[in-house]
Amino acid sequence: MSKSLVKVSKLSAVIALTLGVSACSKIEAESKPVTVDKTIEAKQFIKDAESKMADLSIEINRSEWIYSNFITQDTAALAASVSEKYTAASVELATTSAQFANLPLSDAEKRKLNILRSSIVLPAPLDVVKNAELANISAELNGLYGKGKYCFEDGHCLTQPELSAIMGTSTNPDELLEVWQGWREIAKPMRPLFEREVELANEGAKDLGYADLSELWRSNYDMKPDEFSTELDRLWGQVKPLYDSLHCYVRGELNEQYGDDVAPASGAIPAHLLGNMWAQSWGNIYEQVAPENADPGYDVTELLAKHNFDEIKMVEQAETFFTSLGFEPLPDTFWERSLFVQPEDRDVVCHASAWDLDSRDDIRIKMCIQKTAEDFTVIHHELGHNFYQRAYKDQPFIFKNSANDGFHEAIGDTVALSITPDYLKQIGLLDEVPDASKDIGLLLKQALDKVAFLPFGLMIDQWRWKVFSGEITPEQYNKAWWELREKYQGVKAPIARSEADFDPGAKYHVPGNVPYTRYFLAHILQFQFHQSLCEIAGDNGPVHRCSIYGNKEAGAKLNTMLEMGQSKPWPEALAAVTGTKEMDAKAVLDYFAPLQTWLDEQNSTANRQCGW
Ligand code: X8Z
Ligand code: ZN
């Protein structure tokens, strides 16, 4: 039932296809009194819709917050019941908004109508019984994920973050395999629920005039849905050669370490060896694949421990980054109401999220923080959501969102790209900044996180969109999942899988129904933002060494974009920071250019046959 990982208190999501109608002339309006009446009606409808959704959003946010922080039968039932009411209201508004197409309204009003129509992530059919069924399924799926645990033979059970910690640190292939396989057991019971969820939400999408839920999800990017798909292919094409070089290098190193039986030198890489439960980012295996002479020689997890950073201190340090850019400190209520540490006495949804309960000041995060470098970055990611939410709080309710959903995911990551050695020294964590000869190590660590993520960020919704459109049937869920994993990532399941498994359900965003393409976009956008903000900050050095920490001009520029919320098509928001209206992966390629050269040299020296 969560609509979005950014808990924006409103219909989540984004944008609108332009209606394709220029503002009607006054003459035309005057010659058609019906149109005039209809236009007045439309304006009133928008006002009423905005105030209705604003009111309802507070209720749904509170009920979802309570459910995710205290998973029980009762909180699930209450959350489902509020969600039912909220979805019914959203669907009604979306249906009505379609009636007001082609009227002489302002651009902002047309945009609001389009957002009302296209931003429901899980639309219920008009039928009330089906709406209730969908709300219950959605709550149950979220609960199954949140409560998920794997119990070892000796009887001790671990939660998701605890299992992830093993995936991130162990180099014992047997242990990795057990944890990998064990976690996926939680997803098996999700399969029939997910199948029914898709059926119902597709029906809801059709009721709203879309071909299916895939078309609805792809309608939120200020362009036609198919153009958006093409745009994704273009961006992926730009970065694929870099990914291929990284894949080739990592596979070769893992082969040297584990040998042919565990980590073959050719073909797809077994998914349990990459330092992450989903093989989505590989930074945790940095030590295993690090270059001999170019290692920067520090590890942020160790630095945090050495300097006694607890969970709160990690969040405070991240907040300081944002205030150094000129943003106001977080409100007291953020510190009072957020969840930072996994409670021992109850089930919670540990997957990190940022919330905006009242669309004004009641911003919070919910996260079971581990004291690691990885989570230090995730904290910046989450605070990026909160600072965005606060920056657009004076927009009209329907525009209180990011320019497109990739923007919301990119802000905190952009800031985290500034966690450079210089920055770590400035805040007293690091004693000595490694010299330029260590750049390859720094870049490789970053690439293992960011470049490795790109095909994963893309493939999840490639799978889901095909599921929604019916191209992938329930009998093929798991097989198609692994085909796409192999096609995009060059990663394979470490043991045989079958349709008795439901591996997509072991990834939070599938049971949570959170669209995933946003993260792919964010991984391109954050490099564009970082590059431009570094220019604004007057940093002329290599962009991977640039930190915008403390730079008020960069902060002010970023804020101009954040303040716009969703009020303008995303290319305009992008231009506010970067001066360009195009998403472009060239910034990724520029950032990693020295690494790409180095990887290609390594691969060719070792005579590796790249590809899979
Ligand atoms: O879900 C998230 C954030 C919350 S919006 C922690 N991310 C994706 C994931 O964990 O799968 C951030 C990167 C990708
Ligand atoms: Zn996020």
Please describe what this structure looks like.
The structure is a single chain. The chain has 612 residues and is mainly α. It has a domain of 288 residues. Helix content is 58%, strand content 3%. The chain has 23 helices and seven strands. A three-stranded mixed β-sheet has the order 1-5-6, with helices on both faces. A hairpin with a 6-residue loop joins strand 5 and strand 6. Helix 5 runs antiparallel to helix 8. The longest helix is centred in the N-terminal third of the chain and has 37 residues. The protein starts with 5 loop residues before the first strand and ends in a 7-residue tail after the last helix. About 4% of the residues have low confidence. The site of L-captopril (X8Z) has 7 residues, from helix 15. One of its GO terms (biological process) is proteolysis. It comes from Shewanella pealeana (strain ATCC 700345 / ANG-SQ1). It is an enzyme of class 3 (hydrolase).
Q: Which percent range fits the helix content?
A: 55-70%
What overall geometry do the principal axes of the alpha carbons give?
globular
Radius of gyration, rounded?
Answer: 24 Å
Question: First CA to last CA: what distance?
Answer: 38 Å
Total count of helical runs of at least 4 residues = 23
Q: Hey, roughly how much beta strand do the residues contain? A: under 5%
Count the E strands: 7
What is the string of SSEs from the N terminus onward? EHHHHHEEHHHHHEHHHHEEHHHHHEHHHH
List cofactors, ions and other ligands. Answer: L-captopril, zinc ion
Rounded mean pLDDT is: 94
Low-confidence spans: 8-30
Largest sheet: 3 strands, mixed
Quickly give the structural class.
mainly alpha
* Biggest sheet, spatial arrangement of strands: 1-5-6
InterPro entries: Peptidase_M2
Signal peptide: 1-23
Binding site for Zn(2+) 2: 381, 385, 409
Binding site for Zn(2+) 1: 381, 385, 409
